[in-house]
Structure formats: C-alpha cells, structure tokens
Amino acid sequence: MRKPAFTARAIPAEQTRLIRHRVLWPHKESAASCTIDVDEADHACHVGAFDEQGKHVGVCSLFHQRSDRFPEAVPPSDAVYRLRVMGTLPEVRGQGAGAAIVQFAADWCREQGAQWLWCDAREVAFPFYERMGFSFVSGRYEVPAIGPHRMMALKL
Ligand SMILES: CC(C)(COP(=O)(O)OP(=O)(O)OC[C@H]1O[C@@H](n2cnc3c(N)ncnc32)[C@H](O)[C@@H]1OP(=O)(O)O)[C@@H](O)C(=O)NCCC(=O)NCCS
After folding, report:
1. Which residues line ligand 1 (CB under 6 A)?
2. 0.85 cut: is pTM over it?
3. Does residue 36 sit within a domain?
4. Residue range(s) defining the domain that contains residue 102
C-alpha cells in the first residue's frame, strides 16, 4: 500500500497547543496552558506536519539554546538549536509525519547557520531519533513527572 505523504511547515505558536495537549501533556488542564516561556521568542520556530487532506497531525518547536549537558566535542562557538515538544497524533505514527517534521527542522536550522540540533529525548522516542540520524550525547537522567531521558544531537 502507498505510504501517505506529509508536509511540514512553520506555524504560529498557538497552533501547536492542541497537539501538545493531546500527545505530550494530557495532564495539563487545557490546550491553552500548553505553552513554553520562550514560545514567542524571536529565535523560535514552530513546525506543523499536515496530511494530504491538510489535517494537522504533528508538531515540534525549535529554540536557539545551548545546554550545560552539551559534550566538549561541541565547541561553544558552534550555533545550536534545541528541538522541543515533538509529537505526532497516535493514528498517524510510523507513516512519516515525524520524519517530515525533523527534515523541515534540520533544513530550517541549517538556514540559520546552526551546526547542531539537539533534544532531551524521552526513552520511548530513542529509536525514532536514532532513525533520524541523532546520536546519544549524554547518559540517562530523570525528568520529573515524565521519566528517563537522554540528550541526543544531530550534526547538521
Ligand atoms: C516519537 C514520534 C514523534 C515519532 O513520530 P512518527 O510520526 O511515528 O515518526 P515517523 O513515522 O516519521 O518515523 C520515522 C522512522 O522512525 C521509525 N520509528 C518511529 N518511532 C519508532 C519507534 N518507537 N521504534 C522504532 N522505530 C520508530 C519509523 O518506523 C520510521 O522508520 P522508517 O523510516 O524505516 O519508515 C511519535 O511516536 C510520538 O509523538 N510519540 C509520543 C510523544 C513523544 O514521545 N515525543 C518525543 C518526545 S522527546
């Protein structure tokens, strides 16, 4: 059977909130509360994935941000972007929506002059990020209320 095609594009911050709520933070009281303090920062980019009918099926957000956990292999002069709040609707998983988002994100970060794209990966998402070319760059750490994570990074 033919795989569906997904497209990814930049979207306004407020369009990320329904999917953030449904996929990532269902414990929060409403979609309106699914915000990050830097959502409206000048350096932020929000990405949406859409199916062939134009239905919104996935999100991530990109922020110009380093981490204390960044390994010594990455010089402080390297520009880095952080990928956060990545999620696709359960009914489209495994069909390419996540890959469309990461591809757009990597291209966009390269256009900003970034050398690295990194994320705090949830354990359940390790195989996805590895498939997308990310490598582990930290050991395991616990994010309160969510669980084990490792930092992963993609050389752009
Ligand atoms: C992680 C997530 C974003 C992946 O999205 P997706 O739409 O399923 O991703 P894709 O279909 O584009 O997958 C791309 C590739 O990764 C593979 N992949 C995705 N999830 C995988 C998993 N859990 N285990 C193994 N492979 C996986 C796909 O099979 C596909 O491989 P292919 O290129 O050989 O076909 C999605 O599962 C999700 O939203 N999970 C819940 C929220 C979450 O954990 N977010 C990450 C927070 S760090």
Report:
1. 23-24, 86-88, 92-99, 119, 121-122, 124-125, 127-128, 131
2. yes
3. yes
4. 7-155
